[in-house]
Amino acid sequence: MDFKKYTDAIDREAEVILGASDKVWDAAETAFDEYKSMDALCEALEKEGFTVEKGIGKVPTAFSGRFGHGKPVVGLLGEYDGLSGLSQVSGCPVNNPVVPGGVGHGCGHNLLGAGALGAAIAVKEYLQDTGKEGTVVFYGCPGEEGGSGKAFMAREGVFDECDFCITWHPGATNSVSTGSSLANYQVLYKFDGLAAHAAGAPHLGRGALDAVTLMNVGIQFLREHVIPEARMHYAVTDTGGYSPNVVQPHAEVLYLLRAPETPQVQSIFERVNDIAQGAALMTGTKMSYDFIKACSNIILNDVLGEQLQKSLEKYEPPKLTPDEEKFLTELDKTIGPEQRTDGLKNSLKFLKGEEHDFVEKHVGELYHDFVVPYAYNGQASPGSSDVGDVSWVCPTAQISTATWMASTPGHSWQVVAQGKESVAHRATLYAAKVMADTCLEVMNNPEQLQAAKDEYKKRVPNGYKCPIPAGVKPRSLTKL
């Protein structure tokens, strides 16, 4: 079907959509502190006629914008949290922070929320114009970076009403996401000992920092004895002070444990707990842990993925203007060979024949202005996303569009430098049109929607169980 009449609303409302994106970029707030960013998106939703509710799912910076009535209910997932230490002047091809050490949108979530907003506006236009039954809900999902906001929301049943959900992520390619992700747990380990004079009476002390050090060493030896896909990252968040002549009485280390499936993470978590307890025994300290958050692996949906591919190919991806090419060429010079990435390389493993050859010839180009052919792979990527928890609740799929140049490393100042520029803006509007088109296609095709639900039930026969224990609440990592 032709829904251009409604996706054209995205161009008409571009000022609202991109204005919200730029406001979120300017605010640049980290997980569960995104109050200004939430307000910017909520104001845009209210202006467009959505009914807004803040604090959904017992998460203060989560919200929804709703329009329509009845079934089907389509959810559009938006994010808006930034990353610490990545402040950067927009449009500047050299590293130049606005605030040294400040927050920046190094994963493009200012664009992510705005693109989902644009798609929601187009679906609203359709429902308003036709008077048909159906509901579109924009879900404001905070804390994806280190907070798993969607998992907390899913635990409270926020997404249970949805027949399907669609989202996207800024990136370097125009493509459907056909890989899974790693489930994870984030846990803070705390050690308590006894302070003492490190020279005069060290035998009276029980060193908590020693326990953290021994725990970290133990984890290094564990790495050989877990599945190769597992990841174990840590940050020492409290060393017990900066006086070396004191035996540190308290120290903490934050661990992020990942594996392709939640039961595998649980098994690794139990072994890490044993190592932490062993470190406490060796040092005469006491160990406790604080479960911070978790997220599930992504469950793919091929029915929705194939429709997203058709929608990607229906609309024209952005092409560089001479000024855009000049800026990206200068920015590309700042990326060393050890940082350089190209998302096309991973796609090549799953393509064959002419499609493989077509993609291969574009590897190494400055910018990808074409649509990557659809290639279902199902493999878990090294990263994690709380979109996984939504995908365990209902059929869910996502795309990427080329909001930044091909060589851009993720979570970098180079991403931030591009986040308010014209390429990112146009790729965001493109993403919005693609997502809206897929939503409208599926909403108007009961057989296709049922097929997506059937695939979901086959992949998730026992339903969703949130990996976050009851009683654990969302917390800003700056306030642990």
Features:
480 residues, alpha/beta, Aminopeptidase, Alpha-Beta Plaits, 2 domains, seven-stranded mixed β-sheet, four-stranded antiparallel β-sheet, globular
Task: Give the SSE map.
Blueprint: H1 4-12, H2 14-27, H3 35-47, E1 51-54, E2 63-69, E3 73-78, H4 109-130, E4 134-140, H5 149-155, E5 164-171, E6 175-176, E7 183-192, H6 208-222, E8 231-238, E9 250-259, H7 262-283, E10 286-295, H8 302-314, H9 322-332, H10 344-348, H11 353-360, H12 387-391, E11 396-402, H13 413-418, H14 422-443, H15 446-459
Parallel strand pairs: 3-4, 3-5, 5-11
Antiparallel strand pairs: 1-2, 2-4, 6-11, 7-9, 7-10, 8-9
Helix pairs in contact: 1-4, 1-14, 2-3, 2-4, 3-4, 4-14, 6-7, 8-14
Structure description:
The chain is 39% helix and 16% strand. The protein is an alpha/beta fold and 480 residues long. It has two domains: 4-181 and 297-459, 3-Layer(aba) Sandwich (Aminopeptidase), CATH 3.40.630.10; 183-295, Alpha-Beta Plaits (2-Layer Sandwich). The strands form two sheets. Strands 1-2-4-3-5-11-6 form a seven-stranded mixed sheet. It has a four-stranded antiparallel sheet with strand order 8-9-7-10. A hairpin with an 8-residue loop joins strand 1 (51-54) and strand 2 (63-69). The longest helix has 22 residues, at 109-130.
Named CATH topology of the largest domain: Aminopeptidase
Number of domains as seen in the coordinates = 2
Low-confidence segments:
none
The main sheet comes to: 7 strands, mixed
What integer is the average pLDDT? Answer: 96
How many strand elements?
11
What is the chain-wise order of helices and strands?
Answer: HHHEEEHEHEEEHEEHEHHHHHEHHH
The chain-level structural class is alpha/beta
